[in-house]
Amino acid sequence: MSVVEELQTMNTAEIKALNDQYLINTYGTRKLAMVRGEGTTLWDADGKQYLDCFAGIAVVNLGHCHPAVTEALVEQAKTLVHVSNLYYIEPQVKLAKILTEHSFAARWFFCNCGATANESAIKLARRYWYQKGTPKPEIVTAQQSFHGRTIATITATGQPKYQEGFAPLLTGVRYAPFNDFAALKQTVTPDTGAIMLEAIQGEGGVRVGDETYLKQVRQFCDEHEILLILDEVQTGMGRTGKLFAYEHYGITPDIMTLAKGLGNGVPIGALGCTEEAASGFGVGTHATTFGGNPLCSATALAVLTEMTKPGFLEGVAEKGAYFIGALHDLAGKHNFIKEVRGKGLMIGVEMQDAATPVIQKMIDKGIICGPAGPNVLRFVPPLIITQNEIDRVVQTLDAVLGELG
Ligand SMILES: Cc1ncc(COP(=O)(O)O)c(C=O)c1O
Description:
Strand 2 and strand 3 form a beta hairpin. Helix content is 39%, strand content 18%. It is built from 14 helices and 17 strands. It is an alpha/beta fold and 405 residues long. A seven-stranded mixed β-sheet has the order 4-12-11-10-7-5-6, sandwiched between helices. The termini are far apart. Helix 5 packs parallel to helix 11. Pyridoxal-5'-phosphate (PLP) binds next to helix 6. The site of pyridoxal-5'-phosphate has 15 residues, from helix 6.
């Protein structure tokens, strides 16, 4: 028996029992244990099959066990898994090159996840103004935002529920309502060195940034010498039908953060920035053990190679428009749907009431989806989802809303 088979001989009840005995209970009771994935399909430990419309929270953008990504991962695992950043790393420099060729950014720092990418962005912004001799330590973020779970990033996250019990938080973070430029202007002070936003708020309920708002913010940042940080941890890597969401808005940030889809499930985060912003970090000012190691960099390189093939992103945009259109049609039929929002394959369906019963019934019928806040049902499927699969999801939602209604 192979090691993988050995590890996968438990059923859901057995996995749950061990979980409950040995893990710190931060995730609560769950119903499923997934043990295998291929493309848009997942299998649980009891052998039931699902259509995955959540992609491990917008991570597995190329689908589970994508052959080219798996091949890169396996080949790199056989060659060199890890060395520290005390050495130059070939896959890491190649990754930085391809990211640069496809974005506004000139320079990159690699880390481990979304939170460490945003943590890096906050540090870079502070250090940049310090270095210039005009310290401006304050960061303004948006209400309902989500930027991660470290102390700095729960502080940046404009949702008090994530901060409760963790005081004292970082000082120097102020919040403004999202999509409200007048309020943002009021929140900024002479000490504001950076404004950090998601172009589309993900965890906050799939709230799409207005084009005018983001353009005004960009202009305001230019006029007042403030760095614009875009958190593209969820919106990046093709999710919205462009490689990065800022491309929809005709603006570029000074600093952008990535994670989730970058490694298609292999943990890696990244901070990309302009040459000017990069000057904030000098030798010894920031570092990480794992960030950009050979294994995760080689994997991310394979992800980008696939994603930048001609037609891939256009296909995502088309499928997203089709999915959103079908959901709008469904909203016309079911009053329980309050609003359908999103871009590309980052889609939120706001319900009149809690989304949990809908999600549970969808899962019972073999479709994995999840929440984005209490009333919003979120679809963030692998970007390789087909139109037929989208039809199946919409038909299932139609049936579920019929049953609940
Ligand atoms: C926009 C955004 N930023 C940051 C994060 C944090 O990423 P991670 O969980 O990899 O630390 C998330 C995770 O959901 C996110 O959606």
